[in-house]
């Protein structure tokens, strides 16, 4: 099947013009932002050029199909198949020349990102992590590049993005919006802080140019999208007859809430269901603390108990009870207008969808970074309010117990985790790694130790 054939059948649009650049061409972008863009009333005006984050594989697969792929919306009892045509070019991430050209093009109005939380290379103060050797090396490359000296291409996403945005801003290109779609609170503000921190380290002129020329938009993104497997391609072939090399499976539910300015315009995403709000915080915290926080507890607790998927873990009474206790803590901190009881009830249904094979091992990747963002802040606020934060303690304990059990959890912070595991008191060292203040809080640390024993260590 080709784009031309699908367009002739009225299933996708003939390639819309490239006006959006996306970085991180994984499953989620294709199930979410690309889907909203394809469904917007003005879809014919907005094509996406997608760059892979690290490996070129998806660019090869999707590029060979003209960017078109099948989206499978998986209900508890049936599948719905559709074709998505908003991605018009798929390019390997190491094609930096093409990336800089795409971002610098005056016709480009929006850059979106799904590069995982670890991809932001954030220091604890939300600036760029200059202790990370790759970030430090990229800073030198950026200094050379902006001073007009020959430089190798930077490797980290913040440096690649800064190079492209800096070129555009210094060429006096029109202002542009950069939209983070990763599961980080205040993701736009954090991205701004990393990029402007790096820019400032290169030169004050670059920092000013980027600050003036870029609008950083924060968003809360919500659609459970497991990593596609071979079984999906087989199901797509059986249902549609197409040997699609890059299908995506997702749940029927979808939500996208955005806060920020689009100085050069944007697709009419609201016509596809997105919401634009003046204050994103309550929505993003509800989603991150309840959905993503619970996912972590199910992943660590479920893996310890030998489960493989979210649906299996949430069917376990102890795992579900741990999730409910975490939600009880988070609910204390969220405003009423975001309907926490309704969201909790809908989450239990979404997690329980047995046909969405959401692997716990995928969710557990980079668990340290995610824990610090999704559970630690709730615990700190609850403790400051004088409450015991037992649900958070149990959640953090699920991570510690999984590691003490020897479960391999791939993590960008793996070296620190290994060091902590080698300490005389590894449980205490792991809690310190998650949060120094929580480790120093004796009552909370004792609750965590008791909960680690409850999760069961070998
Ligand atoms: N899958 C979901 O259900 C979901 C839902 C909401 C938000 N998200 C956000 O989207 C992100 C990606 O999810 P996905 O399902 O597309 O995963 P994926 O594994 O399919 O794709 C991840 C993409 O990020 C790139 N990447 C990974 N680590 C990177 C790094 N350190 N630096 C630069 N690029 C890197 C990869 O190359 C790939 O392009 C998540 O981490 C999350 O922040 C995902
Ligand atoms: O994608 P991550 O790795 O940030 O987190 C894993 C899951 O919690 C996440 O993908 C959720 O499924 C998603 O955030 C739902 O909207």
UniProtKB/TrEMBL annotation:
This is Mannitol dehydrogenase family protein. GO terms for molecular function: mannitol-1-phosphate 5-dehydrogenase activity. Keywords: Oxidoreductase. It catalyses: D-mannitol 1-phosphate + NAD(+) = beta-D-fructose 6-phosphate + NADH + H(+). Signal peptide: none annotated. Transmembrane segments: none annotated. Residues 279-400 form the Mannitol dehydrogenase C-terminal domain. InterPro entries: 6-PGluconate_DH-like_C_sf (IPR008927), 6PGD_dom2 (IPR013328), Mannitol_DH (IPR000669), Mannitol_DH/Oxidoreductase (IPR050988), Mannitol_DH_C (IPR013118), Mannitol_DH_N (IPR013131), NAD(P)-bd_dom_sf (IPR036291). The keyword Zinc-finger does not apply. It comes from Jiangella aurantiaca.
């Amino acid at each position: 099947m080709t784009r031309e054939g699908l367009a002739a059948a009225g299933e996708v649009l003939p390639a819309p013009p490239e006006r959006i650049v996306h970085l991180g061409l994984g499953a989620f972008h294709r199930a979410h932002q690309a889907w909203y863009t394809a469904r917007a009333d003005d879809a014919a005006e907005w094509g996406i050029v997608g760059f892979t984050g690290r490996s070129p594989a998806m660019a090869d697969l999707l590029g060979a199909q003209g960017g078109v792929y099948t989206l499978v919306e998986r209900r508890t009892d049936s599948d719905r198949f559709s074709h998505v045509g908003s991605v018009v070019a798929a390019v390997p991430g190491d094609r930096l020349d093409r990336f800089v050209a795409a971002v610098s093009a005056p016709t480009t109005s929006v850059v979106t990102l799904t590069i995982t939380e670890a991809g932001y290379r954030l220091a604890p103060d939300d600036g760029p992590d200059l202790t990370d050797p790759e970030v430090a090396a990229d800073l030198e490359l950026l200094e050379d590049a902006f001073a007009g000296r020959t430089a190798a291409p930077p490797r980290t996403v913040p440096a690649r993005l800064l190079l492209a945005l800096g070129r555009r801003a210094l060429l006096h290109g029109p202002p542009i919006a950069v939209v983070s779609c990763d599961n980080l609170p205040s993701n736009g503000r954090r991205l701004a802080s990393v990029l402007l921190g790096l820019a400032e380290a290169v030169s004050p002129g670059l920092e000013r140019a980027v600050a003036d020329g870029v609008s950083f938009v924060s968003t809360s993104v919500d659609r459970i999208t497991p990593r596609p497997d071979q079984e999906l391609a087989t199901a797509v072939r059986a249902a549609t007859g197409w040997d699609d090399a890059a299908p995506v499976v997702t749940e029927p539910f979808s939500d996208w809430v955005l806060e920020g300015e689009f100085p050069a315009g944007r697709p009419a995403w609201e016509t596809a269901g997105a919401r634009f709000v003046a204050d994103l915080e309550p929505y993003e915290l509800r989603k991150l603390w309840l959905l993503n926080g619970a996912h972590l507890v199910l992943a660590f607790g479920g893996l310890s108990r030998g489960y493989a998927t979210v649906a299996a873990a949430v069917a376990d009474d102890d795992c579900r009870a741990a999730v409910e206790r975490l939600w009880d803590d988070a609910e204390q901190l969220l405003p009423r207008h975001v309907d926490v009881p309704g969201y909790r009830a809908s989450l239990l249904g979404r997690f329980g969808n047995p046909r969405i094979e959401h692997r716990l091992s995928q969710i557990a990747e980079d668990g340290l970074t995610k824990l610090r963002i999704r559970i630690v802040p709730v615990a700190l606020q609850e403790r400051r309010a004088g409450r015991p934060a037992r649900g958070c303690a149990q959640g953090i304990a699920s991570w510690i117990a999984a590691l003490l059990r020897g479960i391999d959890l791939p993590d960008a912070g793996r070296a620190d985790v290994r060091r902590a595991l080698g300490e005389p008191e590894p449980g205490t060292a792991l809690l310190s790694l998650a949060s120094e203040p929580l480790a120093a809080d004796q009552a909370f640390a004792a609750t965590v130790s008791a909960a680690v024993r409850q999760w069961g260590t070998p």
